[in-house]
Amino acid sequence: MSLQEKEKSVNILVVDDEFSVRDSLTKWFKSDGYLAESAANATEALKKLQAGHWDIVFLDIKMPGVDGMELQQRIKNIDPDIVIIMLTGYASIDTAVKSLKEGAYDYLAKPVDPDYLSHLIEKIIQQRRLSRENILLKEKIQELNLTGQTIGKSPEMSKVFELMKSVAATDTPVLIKGESGTGKELIARTIHTRSSRRFFPFIHLNCATLSEELLESELYGHEKGALAEALYLRKGKLEMVDGGALFLDEPALLSIKAQTALQRAIETKQFSRVGSQEIIKVDFRLISATSKDLEILVKEGAFREDLYYQLNVFSIAVPPLRQRGSDIPLLANYFLSDMAKGMNKPITGFSAEALKFIEKYDWPGNVQELKNAMERAVVICQGPLISASELSIPVMLEIPLNELSLEAAEKAHILKVLERMRWDKEKTARALKIDEDTLQSKIEKYGLRK
Amino acid sequence: MRLYILPLRFSDKNLLNNLSFALENSFKIPVVISSNSFSLDGGMDPLRDQFNSTWILSQLLKSEAEESCKILGVTSVDLFVPVLTYVFGEAQLDGRAAVVSIYRLRDELYGLPKNPEKQKTRLEKEAVHELGHTFGLIHCQDPRCVMYTSTYAEEIDFKSREFCSNCSSLLEKKKEDLLNKERAPLKD
Question: pTM of the entire structure?
Fold first, then answer.
């Protein structure tokens, strides 16, 4: 590391009324390449602290006038991130404990062991670097979670954003309802990243994959040897989520037995690992997402009523994309620019015709389908604008309004299924419940092409 | 430009001659073992039973009037700077004077058998290191470079006697600047 790099990274201020201490410490740090300055008293130190940026301050406890303990508090008011190391010629446990309680990083009795001092500075620098990296990474994660994922200017989405905003800061369980592909998980993640639990885990419990056999081990974890395949101790999702948010994805897919186990764990927020008697208490927020109507399932006896009320304290209904038409071009443009950037392709937008198709299509697979379509288009697009032919959406087959015949409908339907099956004729024929020869003759009859 | 070595309560002539040779080899400047020694009594701290290395530096500066020279005090006494329990040596960063002590470089201080060869090598490395500071070099991150910081004796053994390529080029540049400065009055 060059002198310039070191100076940029760590600035050290030595505050001591003894010249020899100031002189020897600043020389020591300068020979290590740090930017080091000194101050003979609190007034001089405060001037320097306010004028520049300091990372570490060595502070003599006993100084005439404002002493080190008082100066420590003032420094913390100026910049709480400054690392303060107290220095004293008279080691006293009481003063040491007091200064550490006030937020000092360490306490050194003069004279200091040079080896200890070197390692102390290295440790502080390493911790500060890690802490800075941590903050940057958290900001980046937050940015990734919030940017673009929940885009929308339509009144329907504005309402969803309002609800998210009001519930995020609370600890209330949230139930997000919406069709597949409407971005329920992203909404759940956004709520979590805006809550005070954001620096704790967001644990995704995919109920569709949670079999009864795996349920206990998955939720509670197990001790080594508790099960035939339990070669190691394993923490369950409920233990891992402690402090954070548990995201229940499609709870309607759980069996009644699984619902019962989950309901108990949610209610008591305590459990034991399989093979252990030890009670583990956890604290988490519950966020669930469903594409099914849980109320109907409760009435039909397919979903536990008590679990339903535990999940559905505050509900957010996410509208399907077809009900928020004004958001479609907005989202399409967002995905286009994001993917073009990711694939390093100079694509700037859509042709007027392509945009018309995008707006007209009803997007049954919602945002996910739109995103996939945009990704495919960006992959195959050659020019600066995505053309209609580069979009793989069935709306490309424009049926003139006056063509309402059964034949026109059949032509449109066959093309739609062909597109869905990526022109796999065998699969298409199977889906249409006709044989392949019939399909081929209809393709020829209607002049259908990829 | 030349380098003066001042023995201060240091009587091992062989070690001094070896050191002189090693420094000439490292810095490629003439080395002279000076006889302008002085008493260390003024730098003694009776409470610590150690000698203040910063005081020794101030005395070294008075011992040689030649502005362009570097002066290295070599001693067998235990050195300290006020805020630290001990130092192997001290130097003026980008200055003229440096001091190095053999006291804590001896294995017998740590209950180990005497090892004169190791002691000689450690002294050479520490002397080169402290003199490196007088040429403006700071501690280097390369653990093989002689400018790598060492706070206990065994650590000195890990590094080499040589400057890494970066420190070496900085040293050469500094020497060139000093030589140009030395020649400057002749041009007027």
Answer: 0.54
Which residues, 6+ apart, have CB-to-CB distance to A289 below 8 Å? Answer: A175, A176, A177, A178, A184, A185, A187, A188, A247, A248, A249, A250
Q: Is residue B176 part of a domain?
A: no
At residue B10, φ and ψ (nearest 5 deg) are -140, 115
**For chain A, domain boundaries:** 3-133, 148-319, 323-334+350-371+388-446
Give bridge partners of residue A107 from the DSSP assignment.
A86
Q: Are B149 and A30 in contact (CB under 8 A)?
A: no
Alpha carbon of A89: minimum distance to chain B alpha carbons (Å): 9
Tens-level pLDDT at each residue, chain A (450 residues): 444 344 346 889 999 998 888 988 998 898 888 889 999 998 899 988 888 888 899 999 888 888 888 888 888 888 888 899 998 876 667 777 888 888 889 888 888 888 889 889 989 988 888 887 787 787 666 655 544 456 778 888 889 989 998 999 899 999 999 998 888 988 998 899 888 888 788 888 888 887 777 788 888 888 877 676 666 778 888 888 888 999 999 999 988 888 888 888 889 988 888 888 888 889 999 999 999 999 999 999 999 999 999 999 999 999 998 888 888 888 898 889 888 888 888 888 898 888 888 888 888 888 888 888 899 999 988 878 888 878 876 654 455 555 667 887 888 889 888 887 878 888 899 889 899 899 999 998 888 877
Assigned fold of A3-133: Rossmann fold (3.40.50)
CATH number at residue B35: 3.40.390.10
Taking any CB pair shorter than 8 Å as contact, residues of chain A touching chain B are: 1-3, 6, 18, 20-21, 23-25, 27-28, 30-33, 87, 110-115, 117-118
